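pasting input
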Amino acid sequence: MMASACWAGILNAQKSYRHFDATTAAEVEALTEAILPGDGTPGAREAGVVWFVDGALATFDKGLVPAYRSGLADVQTRRKRLFPNSVSIAALTPTECHTLVADFDKTEFFSTLRMHTLLGFFGHPKYGGNRNGASAKLLGFEEAHLYMPPFGYYDREAGQ
Amino acid sequence: MSVSYRPSEEVDFVVIGAGAAGGVMAKELSSAGLRVVVLEQGPYLKAKDFTHDEVDVIFHGALTNGESRQPQTFRKKESEVAKPHMTAIYARLVGGGSVHFTANFWRFHPEDFHERSTLGAIPGASLADWPITYEELEPFYTKAEWELGVSGLAGSNPFEGPRSKPYPLPPMPVKSSGVLFERGARKLGLHPFPAPVAVLSKPYQGRGACTHCGYCEAFGCEMNAKSSTLAALIPLAEKTGKCEIRAESYVQKIETDRKGRANAVIYFDRAGKSIRQRTKAVVLCANGAESPRLLLMSGIANSSGLVGRHLMFDIGAYAMGLFEHEVNEYKSIVVTRVVHDFYRSDPKRGFYGGGGLDSRMDFTPASFAGFALPSNGPQWGSEWKRAIRESFTHTAGTMAHCSCLSREQNSVSLDPTHKDAWGLPAIRVTFESHPDDLKNRVFQLERQMEILDAAGARKRWNLPLDDITDSVHLMGTCRMGNDPRTSVVDRWNRSHDVRNLFVVDGSSLVTCGRQQPTETIQALAYRAADYIAKAAPRGEI
């Protein structure tokens, strides 16, 4: 927990993107938020998933840059078709954004985006996401490096 | 105490691969006073180097082979052109698969060694008897358990063969998933027992007990409590002053002399320089995919034409149950209870096959959220998030470890076009399951569902029973047998053709039991080492 908090502290201080421009980052962030929405507990936006994606595309997932470029272009086309008066993905309401994602959730780009959302939300904070213990909060995870029995309800019950 | 040999110096043995079997060979041969060089393609990591970083370990395969360096190709039938696909997955570091495995430590059952005689021929399969019996291997199963450090309860599995000694350590504490699994199994009249695992329930031989951190499967143990060869044996091998572990050494060829005897091993060092290490004999422990590949690249030990054939894979079924209270599978080891009631192949079922069932959870947070929930449910959005929240701490899993019938046409071979980063031919896998294997998976899955129901699951589901296109158990590709025309190695894991070459890893397995092959691979290694240590001083290698 301490190590995670420390990483998060360092990374939350990060102010500029390494791969995205601010406009594109906002578009990607809106899509990840639709995949894992904030609804009482932190969603992708609060967890900083877009920072994970940005870091990934600047380093170990450089090879996915073209997929993001063409994928986002396709999603923008779909947005203009579905919501002709809209100006950006980021400016859509959550309901509109959900409709937009449902329109491309069978594509390869969606699979890539979903995988990055997973890794950014649940992965180690050192990659830029999973901020403020987002993963542990959602999962009900008691984050520690060492546990002792009983581990759960049923082995506690059986031990009595 | 560590020694280093010059490549021009003729050592007694070169061991290729420092994994589950190679680690045993390194320790046993050096303890017998033999001079050993161990060549391992992966890095030499220590406990302090291991992490809980699932992005790196699970999704980026930090400890395993990967397509950037070592691409592979795959096809179902020999008539097809294989396409790029990673099929044969193995750990790539000193300690090999014993570092990142679940640590399930099952002995094969006595009947596994003679199923062909008991059950008769299976059409479309190459089922055969082993040339050895359980009784011959038993002392070495026991030796593996005591040398490595295994926790379990002798006599608790009514289906296992006789054992000469109990386990050295008591079973690990039962988890909630184990309590539920045992409850369900008992209601059905089955015989659940504490999982035998290569994890220390108490301090043993200078290593500390498990602290239940929850990162066993796929990860390396930061506490040295998992009884890998890295933790338990490699340090002893180095202490002899006879054994040099040469990591990041990628073997390209075993060289033979005019008499057909192995006399050197050629490898690329970490800088990519080709080195020739002279040796009196070779033990090949590179795993069921890399060992046949190296023999094929070297053009040796293949008078039978069977090197690479009879490939068997890791086959199973996975079911999950959602329970009322918290199960907390993220804590402690993967498996705490097992059932072997459906292990034996029963002709009354109408197909060949059997399985061992265990309570388990292999999934870490991202892999659980992404891939463990019902495939017909929501996969994104608020409903998905709700399912993740409800399920993660309340889900108990069970896996069936199923038989895989060998077939001669299933194989590891050299791809004619694709190359690895060193310019060597890529592994090409040809694999298609026997129809009985799928019938057996469906049968075993039904048994898992019954256990979850009997345990009181509020909801249960299974992961899709897809075609098998990848495996972490790599077996059968240098089959053991008495007849040089139908097998690659003899009953001592010794090549029929190259008499100072031994192949000791999953590749010599004639059948795959019900998966969990590591203990059998290590018992075979102890047995072969015992034979070598007696034969070498007599000049019989």
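fyi Confidence is low (pLDDT under 50) at residues 1-5 of chain A.
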